[in-house]
Amino acid sequence: MKNIISLFYKNLFLTNRLFAALACSVVLFLFDFFFPWMGIIPELVFWALIVLVIIDMLLLYKPAKGVFARRHAPERLSNSDNNELGVYIENLYTFNVSVGIIDEIPFQFQKRDVWFKTALEPRERKLINYILRPTRRGEYEFGDIRVYVKSPLGLIRRRYNFDQAETLPVYPSFLQMRKYELMAISNRLTDIGIKKMRRIGHSLEFEQVKTYVTGDDYRTINWKATARQGNLMVNSYTDEKSQHVYSIIDKSRAMKMPFEGLSLLDYAINASLVLSNVALLKEDKAGLITISEKLGAVVPADRRPAHLNKILEVLYKEKTRYLETDMEMLYATIRKVIKQRSLVVFFTNFESLNALQRQLPFLRRIAKYHLLLVVFFENTELKTLSEMPAADVEGIYIKTIAEKFAYDKKLIVKELSRHGIQSILSAPQNLTVNTINRYLEIKAKQKI
Hints:
448 residues; alpha/beta; Rossmann fold; 3 domains; 6-stranded mixed sheet; 5-stranded antiparallel sheet; 38% helix; elongated; DUF58; transmembrane; transmembrane helix
């Protein structure tokens, strides 16, 4: 009995309307002191208010279960994307109610305003949708759903607590991966910045002999087949398949730097996931290596249907470390794991030319055996500083230093090119598009 009374008081909340009515009652009692002719009017008003409060309590507390609520959430959330969640609410009362809903979202979002207000007619159901954008991978713990119900009288609120505690994993951006996949299937990649690359010559992978139609390259005419058939026949070629594409992700402290809530490592992970998916759609084999001061995950190149999920599960767990990358170990791993010439996309970051010089000998060794593409990041904050006009001497110093760092990035690109190493210098938000563009360009030019 004691627990029931305790729960009753814990879930009972007074509204502003009740406080306003009590204030009016107090004012009437004050007026009664100065104007005796008011008689028992203040008392009548007060007791009428008490009766209304009791009626309101009976309306809200008579049914054991007046409303029902549950959370609609996906099995996993996509990092750096807008994920849609919802709260299903159903009114089991026989009268109209107004409700306020609090969904206890994970602390990582640092939001205290997830409050939804709505009105429900008897037996009405609603689904209230909202958006969450996580910026870190890992497990996110959701709490209960709390619903505050108010009757048409609106003097008190009754709180309902629904146990909806659950833990949802936040994976690398699989929503972005699906978007690029759908664009690739429907040949609409140009809508999101993916360029169509003009093919130089034709692929060496033979597909079939077909009848000549206007527009076919006359250099591909098969004269023997033409003589047999009596019609012009041409050889048809297709893109070379089963080429190996490896994403190598640097997990050292250089990738800890944040941009727009995400670390450089998260940008690299999202881009490598999309690249792997596009490579599999092109019928190439995708692989993955993660590295820091010690070797991380190694996923040999493959193109089986479940291979992308394997890469996704590996990327989900990766975190930045605080020491420099062991490039000698990376070179030894590449020589051991990658047995044929492949496209090796190395996601890393260089802030100065000296940082590149320390790794350049190993990059040159890798480039001897594979087509190496080094992907590193443009410091957009410094670029913004270098473009701002200087207002004083301190501003001139800051602008000069920012310009020097930006110039160093361009020198890094030239230095890599001088040693025959391809590179991409990209702003973090454009990393995925720029990486896919370069992969398609390399495929079109048959450089692998």
